[in-house]
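Re: that chain you flagged

S.,

Sorry for the slow reply, it's been a week of failed gels. I finally had a moment to sit down with the sequence you sent. For the record, here it is as I used it:
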Amino acid sequence: MNTTISEWRSRATNYIKGECSSEEAASWEALMLSNDDVLEVYMQVMSEMDSELPVMNHPETFVDRVLSNETIVPYRSQPVPISLDRPRRWYEKSVFHYTVAASITLVLMFSGAFDRLFPEGKNPKAELSSSPSYSEQLMEKTTNWLDQLKP
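Prediction finished late last night. Pasting the structure tokens below so you have them in one place:
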């Protein structure tokens, strides 16, 4: 393993100094993308060689030139095309979503979450016209809850 690390260090040094061919550079870049240990060795070598590397005089102008270059295209992830031929997965079907929503509603109903929103008044058999509507009760509860949040 020690010889592998020393080999990686020498390859990283050659890559940083630009002393390798384009094929070697491409294989080294692919290795860095696929192996985190190789990338860590590269970063160590890069920090050790920091004093040997040239200093960029005007980094802002360099960034401006790179960004204004029209031939450089940033990486854009391509969405995976969905073919109409393949069957939809079970979690993509609307029946699944309706079932989950109905299950959550039933759990909330049986747990009494809706009872706390609309508590029965003193007279549960009051006429419909004399009892406040559900929207008024909901507004009252919401207003009271918001008033409790205020400091």
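What I noticed first: The chain has a mean pLDDT of 82.

Talk soon,
D.
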